[in-house]
């Protein structure tokens, strides 16, 4: 059973910052792409940011320029630095590890951490 352990969510005012962290087993961290997804009430889960094992990143248009994903391979940890937060960023944020082997995709999920942006 692969466990991803998230931390760092909470309540923040608009314009504020938070940093999410996600630890993963070293056996998968080195080869899996690491992602952050989010799901707001009544909405579908959406990809927020992704970083490959090689360090390439991509972001949802809604967070470009405000969020930064990074990974520390020595600590087997991925981070999501969230700046200039907006009320519409309120959601449960999920860490995800994903890897494609041939035609098969492997996905592992964290338990989710709540981020609430409100004054």
Your description of this structure?
- The structure is a single chain.
- This protein has 119 residues and is mainly β.
- 3% of the residues lie in helices and 52% in strands.
- The protein is built from one helix and eleven strands; from the N terminus they run βββαββββββββ.
- The strands form two sheets. Strands 2, 4, 5, 6, 9, 10 and 11 form a seven-stranded mixed sheet that branches.
- A hairpin with a 5-residue loop joins β5 (46-51) and β6.
- The mean pLDDT is 95.
What would the keywords be for this entry?
119 residues; mainly beta; four-stranded antiparallel beta sheet
What is the residue-averaged pLDDT?
A: 95
Low-confidence stretches: none
Proportion of residues in β-strands? over 45%
The 3D shape can be described as globular
- The ordered string of helix (H) and strand (E) elements is EEEHEEEEEEEE
Secondary structure elements and pairings:
Elements: E1 5-7, E2 10-12, E3 18-23, H1 26-29, E4 33-39, E5 46-51, E6 57-59, E7 67-72, E8 77-82, E9 91-101, E10 104-109, E11 113-117
Parallel strand pairs: 2-11
Antiparallel strand pairs: 1-3, 3-8, 4-5, 4-9, 5-6, 7-8, 9-10, 9-11
């Amino acid at each position: 059973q692969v466990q991803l352990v998230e931390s760092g969510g909470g309540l923040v005012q608009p314009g504020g910052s938070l940093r999410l962290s996600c630890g993963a087993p070293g056996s998968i961290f080195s080869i899996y792409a690491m992602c952050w997804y989010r799901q707001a009430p009544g909405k579908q889960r959406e990809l927020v940011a992704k970083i490959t094992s090689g360090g390439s990143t991509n972001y949802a248009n809604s967070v470009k320029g405000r969020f930064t994903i990074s990974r520390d391979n020595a600590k087997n940890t991925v981070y999501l630095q969230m700046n200039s937060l907006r009320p519409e960023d309120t959601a449960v944020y999920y860490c995800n590890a994903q890897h494609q082997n041939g035609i098969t995709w492997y996905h592992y999920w964290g338990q989710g951490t709540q981020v609430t942006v409100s004054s």
